[in-house]
Sequence to fold (189 residues):
Amino acid sequence: MYSSIKRKKCKCGCKKYPTLGCDGWSYSCAPKEIKLKYENEKQLQVRNRNARKNAQSKLRADIRGNSEDKRKLDLWYFARRYECPEYCECGCGQQTLVHTSHYKSSLDHLLEKRLFKSVMLHPVNILFLSWSCHADKTNLGYEHIKEHKLKLWEIIVKRFNIVYPFIAEEEKKYIPDILMNELKIDKTY
Fold:
């Protein structure tokens, strides 16, 4: 079935169909002022499209961050995957996700990687947790772990004491007080 709407022809009366954006004229028949307006609009469209593409590529680059740091972090996660035990370190009995594509959910940084860049790739700055214990540590914090998960708290304190000397001086201000109270520094040297 065909439409009963009849397509309009160029304003000059020729048999050509009008060009989009030329106010009912075919581009070849349009007056000079219409052609200039059309060309300027076309250039504006091209300029806008290129600006959008540039903005998108810059945004993607910002999201990805420094690709070299990301590559190093991916390698760190990959190496820690093979150290990860089958079950959560806290003793809850839940399995880790080490054998799935979501294995990073079971590898939790002891000290947050966004605050402690100096020890972000340290091999001891890690906890092997089930998905739910990882969420508890992230959402509820060290106080909850100290009160409810004593086995995990002992592991955290032990690893924190190993990692502490490698933390940059300007990052030490971000260390939670509850961890600083557990610091055991050997001053016999």
